[in-house]
Amino acid sequence: MDNKNRASTLMRKTLMAVTGLFLCFFLVIHLLGNLQLLLPAEQAKASFNSYSQLLSGNIFIKIISYVLYASIVIHCLDALIITLKNKKTAGRYAVDNRGKASKWYSRNMGILGTLILIFLVFHFRDFWYQYKFGSLPKDESGHKDLYAIVVAAYHDWWYVLFYVLSMFALGYHLLHGFYSAARSLGLYHPKYVSWVRTFGTGYSYIITIGFAIIPIYIYLTQHVLWN
Amino acid sequence: MKLYLKIWRQSDAASEGKLVDYELDNVIPHMSFLEMMDTLNEQLVLKGDRPVEFDHDCREGICGQCGMMINGQAHGPIANLTTCQLHMREFKDGDTIYVEPFRALAFPIKRDLRVDRSAFDRIIMAGGFVSVNTGQAPEANGIPITHEQAESAFDSAACIGCGACVATCKNSSAALFTSAKISHLAKLPQGKMESRKRVLSMVKQMDEENFGHCSNTEACEVECPQQISVLNIARMNWEYSLSSVLKK
Questions:
Q1: C-alpha to C-alpha distances, A34 to A29, A86, B59, B195, nearest whole angstrom
Q2: What are the entry keywords (chain A) (predicted)?
Q3: Which residue in A86, A215, B49, B177 is a FRET match for B195, CA 20 to 30 A apart?
Q4: Is A97 within the bounds of a domain?
Q5: How confident is the model at residue B136 (pLDDT cuts 50, 70, 90)?
Q6: Closest CA to B27 of B3, B57, B62, B53
């Protein structure tokens, strides 16, 4: 067997759990910041742009952002290694009804994760890259006008739909991922396991609906109702 | 009732196997699934064919030998049941039933439905025991254990090592089996003393046997004839992390 000097199966899952939970924590902060976009347009613009300025200039946030990039990369690479190993070890059946014993999203975390990764490519290109390396107009307070970029991005209904569907992929990924991470880290007390499961379900709903509502709201208020 | 069977036939580990069609008449609904297989084998022997080989022993649901994949589900369509406890009344006249061996890289097929599950034995050998000097039997009440402790340890110890958890897992992970064996010893004072060393060596052996990762889908608990809880897996994960960190 060729497993010498390799991380054990359990260590790999611990790494998935730790990076995954950090990403879960990041999503909360990200959502709280983004909720400013639901304010009335003028207020949202001033608030969101100054918030973006605040974040981009903060050394603490800069450190967190590097941890974030590392978490995304490690989470993806570790998932790839785990999936390749599982493909090798798994038994295959001529007739397979094993799916009846578990939830579909718990068996398809890799596919959901890939969808999220594809989404992230567009997400980074359209906002992160624009803000960091693009030439953005300034708003009245002299901050980079990220709000204008956001509003412009959700001009097309299909782009809004792409966002909303991606958030559902994320939602199902979280629905299994959150409590699965607690399991991988070794939470075995039955009372707290059920608490974490309930909390994880609530968390997944809030994150999914919270992020999905923003593009819909902006599309409806800025592009449909006002024009 | 009449059944159309599609059964995996394979003469040895090295050769290719395939599903072979059989028709079986006069199946009585009260028969267990294994008795139905016996009936088929009787007919095959009378015809001069090689009977279908499958593992079985106690036929009362406690030995864990009768592993089969029936219509793509471990031990058939009923949750938490062994194949010997599955009865033909769960099927209808004229049904087509697919019977395959438990499949996993770690469970090589020996013949037909018979697989080599000795990987489980080697995991136990790696640490699934308590080291004691043999001698006189110790006083039973020498170490006080609460009823709840004993029951909890027994819940984990109820694992019969049938392999349904591995067969039903999309990754063929042995996490439920290994964790049950780790937990039932870790939950009692006699076993707790060696638990740090035990979890490291048993997990190492589990990985060397080429079982997959646990994805926490919990399908294993659904198919387990003994309803071994997936919380055993959580306990194993916790013990493993702790033991890895504290290892000298």
A1: 9, 37, 61, 47
A2: Membrane, Transmembrane, Transmembrane helix
A3: A86
A4: no
A5: confident
A6: B3
